[in-house]
UniProtKB/TrEMBL annotation:
Protein keywords: Membrane, Transmembrane, Transmembrane helix
Membrane-spanning residues: 29-54, 74-100, 121-140, 146-169
Name under which the protein is recorded: DUF2254 domain-containing protein
Classification via InterPro entries: DUF2254_membrane (IPR018723)
Domain of life: Bacteria
Pfam family, one: DUF2254
């Protein structure tokens, strides 16, 4: 009942899971400033108690005692000063966000807004402004002759605001540098793989399917999506536990990050206990909403990096595209190290309970490099850099995935017209392909590629 009295914008946070709520709050600008405003109110109470109730001017040196009129003048002056610094900071923030939207991807705005340094800077300005405003309100008509805590804290907060302004400008200009942007986005994706996907999935992965209850599969029952939207989060742990209690196997027909319409087939289940199942409880374990999130969707992080490279190609900025390709290659190593490409999730009794959509390493290769390859087209420099990065990935991962990298590289250069490529571009491209062929043990196939560029008369 109380929840319905709250504004809709607040209700949505109350309905979220703990992890999703934390993620969404970090993506907003009001969360951290609100915390600093509460902290400033505490400072107001403490300083006023020290000056008006405990009268600490009696226990301090005369040097620290400030006349009441001077204190009011100081506080009133700093109200305008801190507000001005806040306005400049907001203006700088808008410039940064506008620049990102035009030159790169609008998705990057969330990364800048959710950055802790951005939120702390805005929080300090808002907290300091609220402090001097409230202090001015309470000391305006007091008959107290001297203040100690109020002017000292006020001067300290004004100094903090000035330093924070310089810090924020430096932070914004540093964060805007492309190599910092791509590195931050790569680390964000790696953190999501390490902290989210490993905890949610890897501990339940099973290499072999085992007993899939095939005798019961003829009575497989479908479950449709309860609403339209993107699949954001799945509570795999709870789903596996409930499937164990119900003695069923659940199969997904869509994956996190997919867009699905209401009543589209989302799940199906079968097993000895499938006759009396509460389907709604399984639907509630899958959060579907109007936007994509990165919490369990590694491919969205890859899309962000790919969009930077694509925008850079459109803006004739090959250096940025090259840097993004390098970061993508490093992200591929994280994917290979921490993700097991098996769709089977088992319970603590080693019985498979959830079957996901099958994925393979080459699907991540395509998501990471495929879009860049498409928009690079006849940009032979970028194609060469792409092949060279794939060769570096091949040197660092298990040989069982080498054929995927080789096939992707071969399909990448298939569209190149040998008659219009410059001689040096051809030389460097073939050097990258030769390096990849040695690593992946495809030397004979490389000779056929070489003959394509240098046909024998």
């Amino acid at each position: 009942m109380f929840l319905k009295l709250l504004p809709v914008s607040i209700q949505k946070y109350a309905k979220m899971s703990k992890r999703q709520r934390k993620h969404e709050m970090q993506m907003t600008l009001w969360y951290m400033p609100f915390f600093y405003i509460l902290l400033s109110i505490v400072f107001v109470v403490v300083t006023l108690l020290l000056d008006l109730i405990f009268q600490i001017e009696q226990y301090t040196f005369e040097f620290f005692r400030i006349n009441a009129e001077i204190t009011r003048m100081l506080v009133s002056t700093l109200i305008g000063g801190i507000l001005t610094l806040s306005a400049f900071t907001l203006n700088s923030l808008l410039v940064v966000l506008t620049t990102f939207s035009g030159q790169f991807s609008p998705r990057m705005l969330l990364n800048f807004v959710s950055d802790r340094r951005t939120q702390h800077a805005l929080g300090i300005f808002n907290g300091n402004f609220v402090y001097v405003l409230l202090v001015f309100l309470f000391i305006g008509n007091t008959r107290h002759e001297f203040f100690v805590a109020v002017p000292i804290v006020t001067i300290f907060l004004a100094f903090t605001s000035a330093v924070t302004f310089i810090y924020f400008i430096n932070h914004a200009t540093t964060w805007m540098q492309v190599h910092n942007i791509t590195d931050t986005m790569k680390h964000s994706s790696e953190q999501m793989i390490n902290q989210t996907l490993r905890k949610d999935l890897e501990q339940y992965r099973a290499e072999e399917p085992g007993d899939l209850m095939e005798a019961e599969r003829s009575n497989e029952k479908p479950i449709g999506a309860i609403k339209s939207g993107y699949i954001q989060i799945v509570n795999y742990r709870k789903m596996i536990e409930e499937a164990r209690k119900d003695n069923i196997i659940i199969q997904f027909h869509a994956q996190v990050g997919d867009y699905i319409l209401k009543n589209n087939k989302l799940l199906s289940y079968w097993g000895p206990g499938s006759d009396d199942i509460d389907e709604q409880k399984y639907c509630k374990m899958i959060i579907i909403d109007y936007k994509e999130t990165e919490l369990q969707d590694i491919q969205m992080g890859m899309h962000k990096l790919a969009e930077i490279a694509i925008k850079s190609l459109g803006n004739n900025d090959p250096k940025t595209a090259t840097n993004t390709i390098h970061q993508m290659a490093e992200l591929m190593l994280t994917v290979e190290d921490y993700i097991t490409f098996t769709p089977y999730l088992m319970d603590n009794e080693e019985q498979v309970r959830v079957i996901l959509l099958s994925e393979s390493f080459d699907s991540y290769i395509y998501r990471g490099f495929g879009y860049i390859r498409h928009y690079a087209r006849d940009n032979h420099l970028i194609i060469t850099e792409l092949v060279d990065s794939i060769a570096m990935v091949a040197e660092s991962i298990d040989s069982s995935k080498h054929h995927m990298l080789w096939e992707f590289a071969c399909s990448t250069i298939d569209h190149i017209e040998t008659e219009v490529i410059y001689q040096l571009d051809k030389t460097f491209l073939l050097e990258a392909m030769e390096r990849l062929s040695k690593v992946t043990d495809n030397k004979l196939d490389y000779y056929s590629i070489h003959r394509k560029f240098y046909p024998i008369d």
